[in-house]
Amino acid sequence: MLKKLLHYDLLYIYKYVGIFYILALIFSIISRIFISIDNSTIFNILGSFCGGLAVGMIISSLINAIIRSWQRFIKNIYKDEAYLTHTLPVSKRIIYASKVISSIICAFTTVLISIICLIICYYSKSTIETIKTLLELASNTLNVNVINLLLTIFFIFFLEIIFVILIGYVGIIIGHKYNQNKLTKSIIVSFVLYMLTQTITLIIIFITAIFNKDIMNLFKTVEVINFNIIKKIIILFIILYIVYNVIYYLIGEKLLNKGVNLD
Amino acid sequence: MNLIECKKLTKKFDNKIILDNVNLKISQGKIIGLLGKNGTGKTTLIKLINDLLTPTTGEILIKGKKPGILSKEIVSYLPERTYLDKNMKVINIIKYFKKFYKNFDEQKALNLIKKLNLDVNQKLNKMSKGMQEKIQLILVMSRNAELYILDEPLGGVDPATRDYILDTILSNVNKTATVLISTHLISDVEKILDEVIFIDEGKIKLISPTDELREKERASIDEIFRRLFKC
Questions:
Q1: Mean pLDDT of residues grouped by 10 in chain B (231 residues)?
Q2: DSSP code of residue B120
Q3: DSSP E strands, B27-155
């Protein structure tokens, strides 16, 4: 049943986000072609313009991936279509899992398409050299190799998107427990949960700092940071975001499993 | 075993009581009318049976079990609104039903749609509201369910369509299945009902076989209803 639900959930999201993917790829390719034409100011300007459009499409696809996931969730779980969703012989757990997994898949492909478009647009020997130098500088100071550094950046970005989507889902579920102003309450709850979680993160870092002088320096001084500390904080962030995502997933699942009250 | 059993069922919204301590038993193989004025708790009761609302107190049992996967496999529900994705083509909606409901008879649905001279490749949002409701009814009645719950199937449709709807219901239900029809248009449905449930202000006022009630009161169900719930 999960596979069947996923099919329809992904279809709904990609129907619109897919348009942005295609546009982003087209503009990236056109930009690449224009920029590769030497000694032409006009083509260089057009190339840069198309590159800008490609970046715009990448940002739009990212925003759309998140918004479409929330929109699908509200439509399917609380609006007219919910009368069909909740009368399917499928448990609420599976319905929720399908929504979350489809969002994760969409977030992943969006990040991937973004990287591909940026490579198409801006790949050149000199750009690669510059990025390589910057990454090598960062990787040397953090004592990790370039590939690991890139994967870490990609992974943190991906985790952050999932975190935002899950916070939205939990906010929607709590907001729809009320009988009035459901959407407004969903937005308020999501925002409060986001701020609360970020505050908890800060408190956890501060507690860690009590036992680690180097981390405490981040709070007390503006001195040059020890890069080993940044590495530790990055690892701490990754662990925290994974824990938050798991917790918010379970909260959402439990709340939805308690039942719905459709208008 | 009763098909549906409600025990001390109460539903409140912001302290407003919509259903009040309802005790109800529905057995198999009958066509039952859930009759009441607008806003008396008919749709709330139906939503509770279909797991679309959670009871404030009390419980509902369908074949002895709380609403869940098993009850959803045997209950075919027609809500009073369009619940299908309007961007989907009719053929894709049929495929959707076939995928999720083991008891969905695809051929029956296609035949009924063919009778309406409808193109199955047409999208739902290109159809009139009346046609969308007919499609929905066809899908619901194409399931070989044990319980059909139809919420206001005749609401807002012309007399000719009412006949079509009643005919579709009668000709597609097997004898062992139960049909629960909620409506306030009593005169249109009373001829097909085996039993009636009168509901008012969230309380069950009367449960009776239709013939018995007609004989006892020497009046039609419509007249009895008007007498009982005179404003």
A1: 90 89 91 90 94 93 91 93 90 94 92 86 88 90 93 82 84 87 87 91 91 89 85 69
A2: T
A3: 31-35, 57-62, 75-78, 147-151
Helix axes A227-257, A92-122, angle to 10 degrees: 140
Whether residues A3 and A53 fall in one domain: yes
Residue A142 pLDDT:
67
72-91 in chain B: CB under 8 A from chain A: 72-73, 75, 77, 79, 81-85
Q: Of A123, A158, A191, which residue sits at a domain end? A: A123
Amino acid at A19: I
Domain end marker among A123, A151, A174:
A123
The per-residue pLDDT for A174 is: 95
Cβ(A261)–Cβ(B54) under 8 Å?
A: yes
- Contact, A16 vs A36, CB < 8 A? no
By CB atoms closer than 10 A (0-12, 13-18, 19+), residue B161 is: middle
A76 and A20 in a single domain? The answer is yes
- The answer to whether residue A246 scores a pLDDT higher than 90 is yes
Beta carbons of A87 and B50 less than 8 Å apart: yes
Q: Do B52 and A83 touch (CB under 8 A)?
A: yes
Chain B CB within 8 Å of residue A3 CB: no
User: In chain B, which residues have their Cβ closer than 8 Å to the Cβ of A89?
Assistant: 69-70, 72-73, 100-102
A169 & A257 share domain: yes
Cβ-based neighbours of A40, under 8 Å, separated by 6 or more: none
On whether the B4-228 domain is CATH 2.60.40.3080, my answer is no
Q: Where are the domains of chain B?
A: 4-228
The confidence band for A224, taking pLDDT boundaries of 50, 70 and 90, is low
Element (H, E) at B59: strand B57-62
- Structural domain for A254, as ranges: 131-263
Tell me how many domains chain A contains: 2
- Same domain membership, residue A135 and residue A97: no
Average pLDDT in chain A: 88
Same domain, A151 and A185: yes
Q: What span, in angstroms and rounded, lies between the C-alpha atoms of B209 and B194? A: 6
Q: Which amino acid, A121? A: C
Residues A72 and A110 in one domain: yes
Most B-contacting residue of A83, A185, A258, A261 (CB-CB within 10 A), to test interface: A83
Q: Which residue of A has its CA nearest to B84?
A: A81
